Amino acid sequence: MNDSPTYHTPVLLPESIEGLSTCPAGIYVDVTFGGGGHSKAILEKLKKGGKLFGFDQDEDAENNIPKNEKFTFVRSNFRFLSNFMAWHGIEQIDGLLADLGVSSHHFDDETRGFSFRFDSPLDMRMNKRAGKTAAEILNNCTPEELADIFYFYGELKNARQIASVVVKYRTQKKIETTNDFVEILKPFFGREKEKKYMAQAFQALRIYINGEMDALKEMLSQALQLLKPGGRLVVITYHSLEDRLVKNFFKTGNFEGNVEKDFYGNVLTPFRQINNKVIVPRVEEIERNLRSRSAKLRIVEKKEL
């Protein structure tokens, strides 16, 4: 396994592993394997009979696979969780961990197009074997489609104006690189908040291209079905869209946050909240790893039948 710290520093590591409440002989899933940091910590807790499955759709993650008989790597999007668990003969799991952030590796890889810090081809696909690139989206989507992407996934209030300029720009020159996209965005944002809004625009494209919100819903729904009573879900989010979705699902059992109550006024939910207050990184962790500053950790346990 590649232990290079440059791939990805696991966020909220002690808190998430403690929250998973690892049973030494249990069956666990890390649906965001990446650099393998969380998986390595889980494996250290497992003894005879214990198993860990690590999901990642990015081929680069394969370089981090540990040589451990308790570990099985699954090269796939986590939206296919149930399919692969069935393939491996697993009917129930004791816990699942999801660190939803984009890895440092992706942001620092100049060839992938995830960051506006480098001039690189606009790709942004987690799985380079499938789907349209960011450049293809910007060059071919209608103004209405682009506005929806920037508004719903980037929460940018001037989404329509940005979409209009994208369409105008591509009539003069094909949009191919991150710098092309940055040039389009620059006039919209003042220098004091430029980085923040650039990040939101890049985030919007990335979420749309990789179908992140739909994949998250599918994975969480499947995780609920796979979890044993008493099994735990541990999820780390990094932006308000995914955190809102996770929060709603954990509190109400649905993604809209619609509250249903029983005859006595108790909220009907399949989960018991382990941390009523969201867990965030300590100051020391943020100082060591600035990218952890927006992380939020939520932990729930599936109720006994």
What report would you give on this structure?
It contains twelve helices and seven strands. The protein has 305 residues and is an alpha/beta fold. The protein folds into two domains: 13-105 and 212-302, Rossmann fold (3-Layer(aba) Sandwich); 128-209, DNA polymerase, domain 1, CATH 1.10.150. The protein has a seven-stranded mixed beta sheet with strand order 3-2-1-4-5-7-6, sandwiched between helices. Residues 2-6 have low confidence and may be disordered.
List its traits.
7 strands, DNA polymerase, domain 1, 2 domains, globular, Rossmann fold, disordered N terminus, single chain, alpha/beta, 305 residues, seven-stranded mixed β-sheet
Q: Percent helix among the residues?
A: 25-40%
Order of helices and strands: HEHEEHEHHHHHHHEHEHE
First and last CA, distance: 40 Å
Count of domains: 2
Major sheet: arrangement of strands: 3-2-1-4-5-7-6
Q: Give the amount of beta strand, in percent.
A: 5-15%
Average pLDDT value?
91
Give the overall shape, derived from the CA principal axes. Answer: globular
At CATH level 3, the topology of the largest domain is Rossmann fold
- Structural class label: alpha/beta
Under the CATH scheme, the architecture of the largest domain is 3-Layer(aba) Sandwich
Number of strands: 7
Tally of helical runs: 12
**CATH homologous group name of the largest domain:** Vaccinia Virus protein VP39
Which stretches of 5+ consecutive residues score pLDDT under 50? 2-6
Radius of gyration: 20 Å
